[in-house]
Amino acid sequence: MSSVEQAHTGAPAAGEPANAPGTASAARQTGLWRTVGALLRKELLVELRTLESVPGMSLFALSTFVVFHFALNRGSVEGDLAAGVLWVTLLFAAMLGVNRLFVADADQGGFDAFLLAPVDRSAMFIAKALTLLAYLVVLELVAVPAFGLLLLGAPFGPALPGLIVSLALADVGIAAVGTLVAALAVQTRARDLLGPLLALPLLVPIVIGGSRASAPALVQAHQAAPAARWLLTLGLYDLVFGLIAYAVFDFLLED
Amino acid sequence: MAALEVEGLTRRYGERDALSDVWLTLEQGQTLVVFGPNGAGKTTLLRVLATLLRPHEGRVRVLGSELPEQSWAVRGRVGVLAHEPLLYRELTARENLRFHARLHGVSEERVELLLAAVALDARADEPLRTLSRGMVQRAAIARCVLHQPELLLLDEPYANLDPAAVELVAPLIGSAAEVGAASGGRSSGGTAGVSAAEASGADQRARPTRVVCSHDPGGGLAEADVVLGLRAGRPALLRAADQVDPAEIVELYR
After folding, report:
1. Rounded to an integer, what distance in angstroms lies between the CA atom of residue A165 and that of residue A160?
2. How confident is the model at residue A118 (pLDDT cuts 50, 70, 90)?
3. Crossing angle, helix B93-104 and helix B133-145, to 10 degrees?
């Protein structure tokens, strides 16, 4: 049988299970992590082609630091003020990524195609959250050094590991809540407005926890490790909101 | 067992009934062609059968599973060709099909087979946004049949296709009427012609059950076993195809 005949008749190709037509697709149930892998790969490919999210997020953060640099009219910032500037900037930059997270799926039928596949719907939540997490990491790789250069008088020094832990914990929470909110907002006509309106109140605890945790690391005179209780708060937030988002996500995809 | 059993299906968008009191039964391997003017409810019917919309009233049974309770059992057994290609514009045809192959647990070899079958292999690595609408439609048809679905839900499958492309893709979507023409020769872009028997299967059981939305009375009737005419969401015609006069279909649009 020629290759084209195989395609027409649905006969299995070499290496494919020799299921009869009709039973072949019914027998297939794609595993969760295989599905997550496929979705993640697709997300990153689309972002690499379009460069719609990460460059925008990074440029926004850089521009904001420049604006703060001139608006605050001082050589450097430290402590609570520095932490506030850093976290508010990162949060608003993250919102740009949140707003774009499901746009290609909603506009190009990706949701429908996914819903028609014999896969666990939670895979989409996991893949999208991991995608947003990756965007945030890249954003911070650009934004945090720029923040140090433009606004922080002294280098991060020994407090850097603590700051990285704070950022990592906050990123997980932003990714979980951002994915949930993005999936909800993208199905509405006012998605660009609704996303930030829903996400910002939910992410206030992240800003509080992140800025309180990282403020000691941003004091020039005596840099200190992040306060454990604020790191714990961030971890608890991640756990609670991560589980809620995971549990609720399937229902958002339903008609 | 019937492939489709619909009893008193109603589906609303807000206050408006998009479908109202639809009844039909379709046996396995049969083709139902749905006619009706724009807004008559054809696409809504396809989306309900595809498990993408919940029925608001009535009973819907697809491939032996009740909707929406057993939607999970239907997913992966249905191939949907909608107005939108359900493909990502920034990805190439090959990347799109490979993505869908992973979701459906299909081998990448079948992706290559289908790219060749729809004559897209030469341009399979160009982003979809750079291809013509007809090429995108061919890619969408390849996606639709990638996982060898038991039920095909086709919304105007030949939209944007030239006659050569129609000959090329018709056997893929089990169109016996078009296969007859295709078996006589090769299309300009195709890599091979196929016979009706090869494309549609040796017997009726091997053919997928199909629901096809069409605006073409002649072509639609030629491939239909059963005809459903919709007007403003209500069934205006439901009969075996050989008992339908084309004039009745034209009348639906007036």
Report:
1. 9
2. very high
3. 20
pLDDT tens-digit profile of B26-82? Answer: 999 999 999 999 989 999 999 999 999 999 999 999 999 998 999 989 999 999 999
Q: Residue B84 — left, alpha, or beta (φ > 0 → left; ψ -120 to 50 → alpha)? A: beta
- Is the model's pLDDT at A222 over the cut of 60? yes
Would you state the pLDDT for residue B82?
A: 92
Distance from CA of A41 to the nearest CA of B (A): 9
- B contact test, residue of A3, A5, A6, A25 with most B CBs within 10 A: A25
Closest CA to B104 of A45, A10, A155, A89: A10
| Chain A residues with beta carbon closer than 8 angstroms to that of B201 | 9, 21
Strand order across the beta sheet in which B31-35 lies: B78-81, B151-155, B209-213, B31-35, B226-231, B234-240
Structure letter (DSSP) for residue A75:
S
Q: Which of B75, B95, B129, B130 to mutate to test the interface with A (most CBs of A within 10 A)?
A: B75
pLDDT for residue B17 is more than 50: yes
| Higher per-residue confidence, B111 vs B219 | B111
Terminal-residue alpha carbon distance, chain B: 37
* Complex prediction ipTM: 0.84
Closest partner CB to A255 (pick from B53, B150, B171): B53
Nearest to A38 among B103, B172, B194 (CB): B103
B88 chain-A contacts, CB cut-off 8 A: 42, 46, 104, 108, 110
**Which of B42, B35, B115 is CA-nearest to residue B83?**
B42
* Cβ within 8 Å, pair A25-B77: yes
Chain-chain contact of A109 with B105 (C-beta, under 8 angstroms): no
Q: Which residues does chain B have within 8 Å of residue A10's beta carbon, measured at their own beta carbons?
A: 145, 148
Q: How confident is the model at residue A92 (pLDDT cuts 50, 70, 90)?
A: very high
| Torsion angle, alpha carbons of A231, A232, A235, A237, to 10 | -110
Residues 6+ apart with CB under 8 A from A39: A114, A123, A124, A127, A128
